[in-house]
Amino acid sequence: EKEESTENLPKNIKDMISLIRARYKGDYVRAPLKTVLKIVGALLYFVMIFDVVPDFIPGAGFVDDISVLLLTARSVQKDLKVFRLWKESEKQEATASDLSEQKDGH
What we know:
Elements: H1 9-25, H2 33-47, H3 63-75, H4 77-104
C-alpha cells in the first residue's frame, strides 16, 4: 500500500490538515514539531500564488505544488499513520460512549 502515491494525495492532504487542526486545538499532541512544520510549510506553499513555478502558468503552475505535497506526505507518512490510528480510536471511543449513554437512558 503506497499511502504517499498521487492517487492518495487528496486523502493525505485531508489528513495533514486534520492533524494540524487537532494539534492546534490541543486534541492531538503526539506529532513531532518537525512534522507539523513540514505540513504547514507544504500547505502554505500550495496556497501561495507566487512560488518556484507561479500557479498562473497553465499546466505547469501546479506541478511544483503537487511535488511539494507528495514529498511532504512521503516524509511524514509514519506520523500520518499514527494520527489515523489515533483518529480512528477517537471515533470508536465516541461511538462506544454514545451507545453507553443510550443504554443507560441518558
